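Tokens in:
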């Protein structure tokens, strides 16, 4: 579209971690204004670092705006294998924080495993809100009524 087949009426947009996860953080903070303390579980690698950075920066920006100057607490991201199956250490890490909100940047089957394992230790009871990296269609099919 930029050379031989150029067409000045074609525009391409590509979402990136900053746009996608900053917007998610804003939506979560605005819809759950009392949650100012956040934990993150992200996959190892550059994608995980970008996701964590974008999400954390946005939480720190929007919590004070929504909560009359309140400070946000964003814990260091808990980094896991992008293809892992055992998330007990990560879940225990989240449980040991004071966080009331959780962002999960792991996607696909590992995310399903993480959520299933999290239920058994009470993570769902601890968190007031959980946001995830856009895997909801897969989650709905895999977890069905347990979602």
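Residues out:
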């Amino acid at each position: 579209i930029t050379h031989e087949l150029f067409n000045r009426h074609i525009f391409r947009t590509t979402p990136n971690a900053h746009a996608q996860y900053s917007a998610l953080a804003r939506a979560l903070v605005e819809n759950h204004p009392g949650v100012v303390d956040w934990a993150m579980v992200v996959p190892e690698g550059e994608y995980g670092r970008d996701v964590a950075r974008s999400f954390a920066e946005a939480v720190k920006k929007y919590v004070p705006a929504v909560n009359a100057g309140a400070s946000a607490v964003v814990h260091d991201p808990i980094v896991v294998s992008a293809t892992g199956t055992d998330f007990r250490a990560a879940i225990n890490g989240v449980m040991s924080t004071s966080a009331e909100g959780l962002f999960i940047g792991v996607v696909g089957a590992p995310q399903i495993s993480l959520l299933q394992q999290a239920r058994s230790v009470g993570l769902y009871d601890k968190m007031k809100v959980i946001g995830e990296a856009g895997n909801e269609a897969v989650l709905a099919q895999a977890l069905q009524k347990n979602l």
